[in-house]
Amino acid sequence: MYRITIRQLILLSLISALLAGTFVAVYDRYGKKALPTAIATSDETALSATEGEKAKAQKNESMSWDEKNNIDVYETISPGVVNITSTTYVEDFWGFEADPQQGTGSGSIIDKQGHILTNVHVVKGAQELTVTLADKTTYPAKVVGTDPDNDLAVIKISAPAEKLHVVPLGTSQELHIGQKVLAIGNPFGLDRTLTSGIISGLGRPLKTANGRTVDNVIQTDASINPGNSGGPLLNSKGEMIGVNTAIYSPSGGSVGIGFAVPVDIAKRIIPELINYGQVLRPWLGIGTRTITPQLASAVDMGVKEGLIITGTLPEGPAGRAGIKGSTNVTRKGNRYYLEADVLTKVGDTRVKSEEDLYRALNNYKPTDTIQVEIYRNGQPMNISVKLEPRPKLYNR
User: Fold this and answer.
1) What residues are paired with 146 via a beta bridge?
2) Residues 168-178: pLDDT tens digits?
3) Strand partners, 232
4) Which residue numbers are catalytic?
5) 301 with 342: CB under 8 angstroms?
6) Which of 273-277, 291-295, 299-303 has the lowest mean pLDDT?
7) Residue (of 244, 218, 221) closest to 231 by Cα position
8) Are strands 101-109 and 81-88 parallel, antiparallel or unpaired?
9) Which pTM was predicted?
């Protein structure tokens, strides 16, 4: 049996202590530093992510539903709202080209082919049109079709489909006064501005620049200013319910009375604007003058209300049907008689003004054959008239 001396035991203890100290030093320098650092980094990242999510959640919790809805609609829809710049070149007194005149408006991308819905007055008279998208890229645009009667137009750009964010078209039926609405546009050239409000009124009449009246226009208190024209009026789902068109403002700025053409009108005419460049509306091909009480008392026409037909186009629907137009008055004794026919009814609709005639004809297709009532020599007559599309020349 081997015996360990005291001296050997002390030496062995010293060697063991030295090895243990070396191991501890190495571990402290490398192992402890590497392993816990990796774990700490992972923990800190997780903690940071958790804190970020909590902060975001707390921020969202601090917002009302209405605020979050505004943000969601804006972030989703605003990329589809464009800035339209129209440029017109004019000459000065000496015939030299003066500085170009520019105007701005808004529009909504309605398909991946690059069609954009806007107002006629945004693009009317423009010699150049430029569209700026949300990513600040610009494209030249051309007018595809216009409908001055509703102040709506479609223009087109050639841009990659991935850049075209389509604004969804909703419906303008069953809207309610008090319903929340949002407007996105470019007032005074400020890109993609969001304003909010409610529907303040429904069924408003709005007279366009060509003298026609758009019925059932939406009134809103959402701020609409110059440059908003042509942009979308949206519901809380982010669907377009109207096209912002006009404001009532004695000062020229927003006073909380804005008007939007109902989107259902736009949906009905967009295909015709794209395919034909105009809306195919029926017409009679006549010139008219409204009977006034003073005129009715002075001239014997056999009727007190209606439209005096002042002239007809020989190749127009009314002219071919034998309807007569004139401005001549014949005197017989103490009475004056009108030589022209007087239009009093279109189909089943009484006609007392040009607006009545316009509304009545809108109930028919351009190829329909209708019955009209006229007064000739003081006697009523019914005449059959085959309608035709109104020539583009007369779409003022």
Assistant:
1) 153
2) 999 999 999 99
3) 243
4) 121, 151, 229
5) yes
6) 299-303
7) 244
8) antiparallel
9) 0.76
